[in-house]
């Protein structure tokens, strides 16, 4: 099977699973938004945003490096080193997240008061129990991807989202309170993380022992990536938290509907990242330069072409989309949805370039790019949100997305001396913009 066909097969599998996961996850949020109302849904979203921010920081760049390292060592057929990498990483990440969970549990009241939202304190305490299990789930998925078992990684996403919905319905039937909603979310994650860990042990034996040499090598590679990932996470969830700090929980609830709607465009890019990174890392281990360049160009064009229809649909009909899903009470988030969607699309196009930087061991450039975008994003959020509310948050995201995407694509062009976007692709984008403009004016 050619590398392009392997990329296509993996992307199709993961896109189907991701589409299903996104639809289920979106449905989950729609159910919550309608049952809880904008204010209570805002409390849930704030608590979840804080949990995701902290837990993802604790996992940071190590879990992303895993798929690259495993694929690279598979290219060299070093099974023993793979065993050491997986076991040491899992143990390190689990222990650090146990510590994070304990800290968040006892600091929940102080965190809630600092955010001017005391109602989220009990929610944070429940989410604290999920830290190690969420970390295990994310890490095991990256191990699956390193072995190019995209199917297992995708199934884990589908199962955890499906179980969350099932437990949510169960909670609603017995005692539908926001506390029960959070517990259903946490329990679903614990169950699927445990199942995924068992499956992982069948692929590669897990000893749960530290190997200092392997951890040192992994951390040496990962530390700039860790900073880049942390910055990306802060940018992803920081707007929600800053919005909650300056504005009302209701506005957070509306913004929390616009965000996952726009993020539906991440399905092609996320699917590609999952398949592309281990595949391209394996090629680097084999020093197949020609195939690397060909695969990079192919991946970028596929993401671009697959994302265009969704972009045009959202930009043309944002109010109709929100009204038909979340309801009329959320329609005022249409402009935020439009701005977020364009930002997500721009990020998607630059995703293959970011994975190329990782495979080229240019993690310091990834860190630099993220820090620049971070400063711009947080600064604009603090400046714009008090004045423009959720639209200011969306605008800050769009501007920072343009900056970081430009940096990624430009740097890869310098490193590998290749032009990834053909004139035909650019003309397609311009045609889409013109069509959208005509539709608006008609």
Helices and strands in order:
Layout: H1 3-76, H2 79-114, H3 121-127, H4 131-146, H5 150-175, H6 178-203, H7 212-246, H8 249-262, H9 266-286, H10 289-316, H11 318-325, H12 334-349, H13 351-359, H14 363-388, H15 390-416, H16 423-441
In short:
The protein is 88% helix and 0% strand.
Jot down its keywords:
16 helices; mainly alpha; 442 residues
Based on DSSP secondary structure assignment, what is the total number of beta strands? 0
Shape: globular
Give the biggest beta sheet: none
Helix coverage percent:
over 70%
Q: What is the N-to-C order of secondary-structure elements (H for helix, E for strand)?
A: HHHHHHHHHHHHHHHH
Detail the poorly predicted runs: none
Helix/strand-derived category reads mainly alpha
Number of helices: 16
What is the radius of gyration computed over CA atoms, rounded to a whole number of angstroms? 21 Å
% residues in beta strands: under 5%
Residue-averaged pLDDT: 79
Distance between the termini: 48 Å
Structure write-up:
The protein is an all-alpha fold and 442 residues long. 88% of the residues lie in helices and 0% in strands. Helix 4 (131-146) packs antiparallel against helix 5 (150-175) and helix 5 (150-175) packs antiparallel against helix 6 (178-203). It is globular, with a radius of gyration of 21 Å. The mean pLDDT is 79.
């Amino acid at each position: 099977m050619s590398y392009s066909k392997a990329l296509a097969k993996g992307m199709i599998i993961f896109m189907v699973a991701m589409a299903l996961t996104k639809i289920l996850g979106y449905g989950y949020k729609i159910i919550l938004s309608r049952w809880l109302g904008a204010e209570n849904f805002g409390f849930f979203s704030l608590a979840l945003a804080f949990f995701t921010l902290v837990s993802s920081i604790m996992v940071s760049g190590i879990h992303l490096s895993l798929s690259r390292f495993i694929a690279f060592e598979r290219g060299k057929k070093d099974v023993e080193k793979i065993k050491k990498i997986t076991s040491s990483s899992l143990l390190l990440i689990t222990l650090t997240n146990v510590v994070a969970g304990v800290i968040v549990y006892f600091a929940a009241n102080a965190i809630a008061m600092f955010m001017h939202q005391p109602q989220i304190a009990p929610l944070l305490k429940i989410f604290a129990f999920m830290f190690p299990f969420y970390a295990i789930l994310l890490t095991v998925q990256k191990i699956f991807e390193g072995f190019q078992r995209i199917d297992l990684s995708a199934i884990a996403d589908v199962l955890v989202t499906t179980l969350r919905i099932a437990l949510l319905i169960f909670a609603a039937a017995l005692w539908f309170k926001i506390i029960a909603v959070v517990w259903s979310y946490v329990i679903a994650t614990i169950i699927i993380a445990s199942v995924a860990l068992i499956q992982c042990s069948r692929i590669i034996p897990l000893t749960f022992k530290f190997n200092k040499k392997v951890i040192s090598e992994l951390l040496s590679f990962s530390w700039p990536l860790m900073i880049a990932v942390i910055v990306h996470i802060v940018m992803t969830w920081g707007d929600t938290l800053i919005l909650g700090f300056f504005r009302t929980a209701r506005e957070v609830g509306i913004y929390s509907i616009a965000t996952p709607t726009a993020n539906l465009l991440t399905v092609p890019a996320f699917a590609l990242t999952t398949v592309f990174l281990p595949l391209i890392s394996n090629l680097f281990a084999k020093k197949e330069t020609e195939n690397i360049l060909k695969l990079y160009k192919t991946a970028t064009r596929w993401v671009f072409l697959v994302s265009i229809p969704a972009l045009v649909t959202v930009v043309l009909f944002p109010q109709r989309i929100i009204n038909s899903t979340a309801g009329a009470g959320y329609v005022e988030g249409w402009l935020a949805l439009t701005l977020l969607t364009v930002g997500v699309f721009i990020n998607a196009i630059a995703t293959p370039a970011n994975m190329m930087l990782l495979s080229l061991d240019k993690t310091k450039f990834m860190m630099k790019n993220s820090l620049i975008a971070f400063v711009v994003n947080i600064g604009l959020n603090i400046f714009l949100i008090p004045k423009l509310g959720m639209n200011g948050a969306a605008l800050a995201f769009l501007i920072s997305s343009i900056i970081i995407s430009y940096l990624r694509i430009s740097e890869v062009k310098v490193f590998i001396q290749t032009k990834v976007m053909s004139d035909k692709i650019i003309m397609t984008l311009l045609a889409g913009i013109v069509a959208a403009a005509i539709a608006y004016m008609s």
